[in-house]
Amino acid sequence: MNRDWIATARTLSEALPYLQRYSGAVVVVKFGGNAMGDDDAMAEFARDIVLMRQVGMNPVVVHGGGPMINEMLGKLGIESQFVRGKRVTDKATVEVVEMILSGLVNKRIVQAINDQGGRAVGISGKDDDLMVCEADDPELGFVGRPVEMNVQVIRDLYSAGIIPVIAPVATGMADNETFNVNGDTAAGAIAGALQADRLLLLTDVAGVKNAEGDVITQLTPEDVEALIADGTIAGGMIPKTETALKALRDGVRAVVIVDGRVQNACLLELFTEHGAGSLIRSTAPRVPPQAR
Ligand SMILES: Nc1ncnc2c1ncn2[C@@H]1O[C@H](COP(=O)(O)OP(=O)(O)O)[C@@H](O)[C@H]1O
Ligand SMILES: CC(=O)N[C@@H](CCC(=O)OP(=O)(O)O)C(=O)O
């Protein structure tokens, strides 16, 4: 008997408790622009999402697209700068952000999922007033902080067997306002409002690193706060970890910062006892489901 087949059958068998545990679970997956990679990496991500749906989970994809926005801003000669991991966004910038995120990036992911046999529908935070924002900080311009979430549209989509793919662009309280929302912030707000079982934040690093550069596989909210305070967590990792803390406070059971460059990162995280990044939750170590 071919050893590879035996190993495959064993892997499937070992996944059973995880499949049972996550049946019906709502899992919000934030797919960062840096994690997107080439068409093959995109197809592999899409395949994982379709598999999650196929085994009875309710995956909800929230995406970023920072590098793609940078590229277009560069072509247009618009300068852009970041403060604490968020893009300072003026009127011209927010138009480019909406065009790239709701258009190019959103539809690329939708197409990739549909190509794998899933049924993806792309929306932004504007659709059905999913995410209503206020200005986060006057210094940042049109950067939004979600203040009202209307997630029924997401429930309607996944209840109909559809995989929602959401661009982090939002409407404001006043007419005709558009806000640029950090992708991690949007994913956290959506996961919180859905009371999701898991929030996976896919990125291009192995996880949250300590001052020596080693990945920390499990952290409590207190650990995260200390690492932000002493500057070990910096740049784009700040909104990511702050999102994790807020999502936990809002009732999400656990948040994982996942290395999206690892093959089948989502499956590895959900269906095996080996994680692929840093797990953040209040207590309890990473243990197989039958022991929980
Ligand atoms: N302590 C840390 N551990 C890991 N990454 C960190 C840390 N502090 C800062 N970073 C930076 O945060 C980046 C991830 O954030 P970001 O680039 O916004 O990701 P994404 O585009 O996937 O959302 C990493 O590439 C890394 O440069
Ligand atoms: C306010 C803010 O910073 N918005 C982000 C939105 C995209 C994003 O978050 O993309 P990644 O996940 O790929 O970094 C931006 O303009 O880049």
Question: How would you describe the overall organization of this protein?
Answer:
- InterPro entries: AceGlu_kinase-like_sf, AcgluKinase_fam, ArgB, Asp/Glu/Uridylate_kinase, Glu/AcGlu_kinase, NAGK-C.
- GO terms for molecular function: acetylglutamate kinase activity; ATP binding.
- Keywords: Amino-acid biosynthesis, Arginine biosynthesis, ATP-binding, Cytoplasm, Kinase, Nucleotide-binding, Transferase.
- Residues 26-259 form the Aspartate/glutamate/uridylate kinase domain.
- Pathway: Amino-acid biosynthesis; L-arginine biosynthesis; N(2)-acetyl-L-ornithine from L-glutamate: step 2/4.
- With 292 residues, this protein is α/β, with parallel strands linked by helices.
- The protein has one domain: 3-Layer(aba) Sandwich (Carbamate kinase), CATH 3.40.1160.10.
- It is 42% helix and 21% strand.
- The strands form three sheets. The chain has an eight-stranded mixed beta sheet with strand order 5-8-2-1-11-13-14-12, with helices on both faces.
- Strand 9 and strand 10 (178-180) form a beta hairpin.
- Helix 4 crosses helix 6 and helix 8 packs parallel to helix 10 (237-249).
- The radius of gyration is 19 Å and the shape is globular.
- The model is unreliable at 284-292 (pLDDT under 50).
- The chain binds adenosine-5'-diphosphate and N-acetyl-L-glutamyl 5-phosphate.
- The site of adenosine-5'-diphosphate has 20 residues, from helix 3 and helix 10.
